[in-house]
Amino acid sequence: MLGWLAPVAVLAALLLIWYACCVLHVFPSYALPTPLDVAKGFVEEIKAGRLMNDIISSLWRVVIGFSVSALLGVPAGLWLGQYALARKAFVPMLNFFRFLSPLAWIPFAILWFHIGDKPAIFLIFLAAFFPLVLATMSAVANIPSIYFRVARDYNYKGFALISKVTFPAVLPQIITALRVSYGIAWVVIVAAEMVGCQDGLGYGIWDGRNGLRLDIVVCYMLIIGILGMIMDRLLALLTKLPGVRWGYDR
Amino acid sequence: MKDALILDNVSHSYGNLQVLHEINLVVEKGEFVVLVGPSGCGKTTILNLLSGHTKPSSGSIKREGEIRTVYQQDGLFPWLTVSENISMGLNAIKDENARASQLKELFELIHLQGFEDHYPHQLSGGMKQRVELARALAGDSDILFMDEPFSALDYQTRIRLRRELIRLLAKRPRTVVFVTHDIEEAVQLADRVLVLGKRPASISKELHIPAAHPRDLTNVKMINATEEILKELGLQTPGDIDDIEFLGEDQSAKIISAKNNA
What we know:
Chain A is mostly helical. Chain A contains ten helices and no strands. By secondary structure, chain B is of the alpha/beta class. Chain B has helices at residues 43-51, 82-88, 96-109, 125-137, 155-171, 183-189, 220-232, 249-261; strands spanning 3-14, 17-28, 32-36, 58-63, 67-70, 143-147, 175-180, 192-196, 203-208.
């Protein structure tokens, strides 16, 4: 009972502080909308149909960019993890790009891919790809050697070795890496859409600011946070798969 | 061919550290050989050489037949169920029905019916080792290597699993090379015990134990064999108890004096 009530109480307190700030005019009223303003703005956006359109655009971009980075990054990590020399060769480059904010690529993204879905997908890809490769790679490099000895006794070779031993041995860590890099991707989409797109949640914030409709900006902020949480819960479902439980039940 | 495994004058070094010195060993088909010796004496290295996992610095090795190894722990794939783990050993059988019936028989053999869909992390240590045994004995392998397979278990489980191993081998005979530091285990299981000395190790004693199974630990033959091995390892002296030379004592004494000097 208390466990269920506690987060609700925290949220209520947050709302109350927000409301108090509005009533006490901590910031000028044009710079801080009240909760009621936001609720009205929300209804307005729903009726106009724009919010739904922006949600779908953003989700679409993130899903595509994130999937491409997973489909390329995980196999790349599996490969790199097996060869010490390959790791030595690629790790400095991978680390460099991991620490280079994908937002630094914005000028190129726009020049190469113009305005629309493509530059945003490109930036999402860059945001998720490098952490995924690095996490998969180090997970593979740390697989206990006993699994490979056993695999040899039972004649696992080539692709069967990778798909039936290496991959399942690191799957729990890959799922964790997917959640982390999804978090990065979702943060990046907002900034990417502010400059490279004509729609999407990030663009919605930008547009709201330009029109001084901060109630709508807050609407979009709420949606971004909630959608991020929902997507993370969905990815967390992967950790419930029976074949990966061993990686978390310790 | 009668000999399953041959080590011919094998020596092995890791860098400058010589671990094994001129080991000669012939294991006959169907024989149960146990290697005993202090930890770090190179017992596991011998297994790695026999399996081909490590190449010897000098000497030659012959092996005849398919090898399976049972490890001390964590040899099961944690992402597979018990049934899937055991099925690994049945990969060579292509016929679905034959596999299914083999699998069922193996579960009955290790008394783990009802645990087919459990994962290894849901089992106790003893159950896991029984699953490892079933996996290793599944199908038609010839040679079984066991690297301290019961050492991580509690005493009672260990005794029970020794009996279980003997029972399983009676149903599915294999050539066994078993490595342990547990002398009791050695005399209870082995047809032949080989005692390894200190580094660089060579076989310092060979002991045939012709007693029938099941072997009672308190049986006179077992006690005599235990005594002989203990003597060989320098762990049994007739005189004052202070005379007992523990292996590795000189090293720990050095460490203590180094600590005191620091």
